[in-house]
């Protein structure tokens, strides 16, 4: 890759599209290597394991790099010498894509679809996890694939909209499809009423507890705070 000045793509931890290539490579290696290993182990004494895969791994990689693939119709080693490679789509699209695809205008405020565990870390979705990001972002860049037609990709600003930066979340670097974005109208955005917040959250912006009338002159102990929460 250094010989042909091919840049290395850093895989996004929470992007299924980014990890798909890695998973496909591991699956293909397992299909080739393990049937050879099992065939050898069938002739070995009980308890012995074959380590042939460690010796033939480089040979298999060379064979894969020099064998034509279905989507680009050429070997990967030859594709790395070219400035541009056109790939066929792996599946037939079920909706218009590319220039015919409906697009979200640039600078639109949106939320993005969270990957499992992306909000608080991990790889599984918790029962308390929202489906959409808490932070709101503006669309920074739009990429339209023309030849061949590809899905329109949206890149978001590095920082969230100022009014939502204090919320929990991670600033994403990956691109998004239109199905993974939810348009948010910041001008008509509705928040919970003040009465609701005062009832269930006894703190002001300065983190000073706001007490009901019949507790105005009462020192705030832990028991008093609990009593306020119970009485509402």
Mean pLDDT score: 77
Count every beta strand, where a strand is a DSSP E run of 2 or more residues: 4
Task: State the shape.
Answer: extended
Residues in helices, as a percent range: 25-40%
Spans of 5+ residues with little confidence (pLDDT < 50)?
204-232
Q: What is the chains' assembly state?
A: single chain
Question: Which class best fits the helix and strand makeup?
Answer: alpha+beta
Number of helices: 5
Short description, anyone?
This protein is of the alpha+beta class and 232 residues long.
How would you describe this structure to a colleague?
This protein is α+β, with helices and mostly antiparallel strands and 232 residues long. The chain has 5 helices and 4 strands. It has a 4-stranded antiparallel beta sheet with strand order 3-2-1-4, with no helix packed on it. The chain is extended, with a radius of gyration of 27 Å. The relative contact order is 0.09. Mean pLDDT is 77; it is low at 204-232.
């Amino acid at each position: 890759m250094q010989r042909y000045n091919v840049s290395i793509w850093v895989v996004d931890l929470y992007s299924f599209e980014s990890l798909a290539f890695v998973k496909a490579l591991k699956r293909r290696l397992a299909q080739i290597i393990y049937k050879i290993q099992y065939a050898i182990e069938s002739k070995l004494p009980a308890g012995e394991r074959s380590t042939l895969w460690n010796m033939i791994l480089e040979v298999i990689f060379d064979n894969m790099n020099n064998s034509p693939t279905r989507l680009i119709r050429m070997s990967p080693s030859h594709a790395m010498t070219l400035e541009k490679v056109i790939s066929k789509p792996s599946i037939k699209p079920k909706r218009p894509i590319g220039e015919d695809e409906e697009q979200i205008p640039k600078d639109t405020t949106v939320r993005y679809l969270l990957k499992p565990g992306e909000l608080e870390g991990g790889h599984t979705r918790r029962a308390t996890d929202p489906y959409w990001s808490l932070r709101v972002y503006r669309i920074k860049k739009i990429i339209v694939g023309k030849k061949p037609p590809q899905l329109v990709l949206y890149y978001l600003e590095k920082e969230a909209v100022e009014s939502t930066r204090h919320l929990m979340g991670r600033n994403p670097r990956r691109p998004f499809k239109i199905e993974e974005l939810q348009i948010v109208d910041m001008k008509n955005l509705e928040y919970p009423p003040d009465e609701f917040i005062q009832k269930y959250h006894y703190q002001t912006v300065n983190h000073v507890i706001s007490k009901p009338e019949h507790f105005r002159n009462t020192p705030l102990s832990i028991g008093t705070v609990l009593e306020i929460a119970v009485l509402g």
